[in-house]
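INFO batch 0412 | record 1 of 1 | parsing
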Amino acid sequence: MSLSTAAHVGLHAKEVTLGYDQRVISANLNVQIPEGSFTVIVGPNACGKSTLLRALARLIKPSEGQILLDGRSVAGFPSKELARKLGLLPQSSIAPEGITVADLVARGRYPHQKLLRQWGTADEAAVVEAMASTGIEALSHRLVDELSGGQRQRVWVAMVLAQQTPVLLLDEPTTFLDIAHQIELLDLCRDLNEGSGRTLVAVLHDLNHACRYASNIIAMKDGAVVAEGAPADVVTEELVEHVFGMPCRIIEDPVSHTPLVIPLGRTRP
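INFO prediction complete | emitting tokens
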């Protein structure tokens, strides 16, 4: 499967209760990720965005309910089979000491390796394409430890792309990136979604980026989903104040024609 083709995969959190130890973050949460969508989860800090994403990726086991992928509980998938369907970029990752960029990106091909199917031309092509898509070809032989935070983030994105899954989960993927590389990455995400039909789910802090790039927004507060749908239908002045406690005005973005949130801030004397 190349970066230009992917099958639709349904992802659904069904009446899940999520938390850490005895602390409940979300209770009886129902979330349906539209197939083939670019879904962005937004909300204030500690509202449950990343917890939900980690549950979708099977990193957190719900105490109640279940996460379904193609109608099957993710708990029942063998690890490699799940990794061929669902790729995850976590908030922070630590590369093995002394590993090169090319070798780290190549690790994205591990789910496709079998006893009778080792490294081949398809794997090589996937790695080359992923590195080109993220603009890191020139870093191929560099040690990951030597890179800047933004460069490392693009390397991790390339590794996930090399995995070539129909679903990509991205937890704050623009972290450490300057504004130019943030836009490049979000443009790439949109291309992957629109060009190949991949389902993308991302946690973003920038509400205007979410409005510009998402086809579907999930707004969360206090562990619950308070609104979901197309940005133009969901992002209102009332919702922003309710979710973020921030008075604002919303106008039309003159470039993308999506909602553009203008914070009011404090009135100057």
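INFO post-check: The longest strand covers residues 23-33.
INFO record closed
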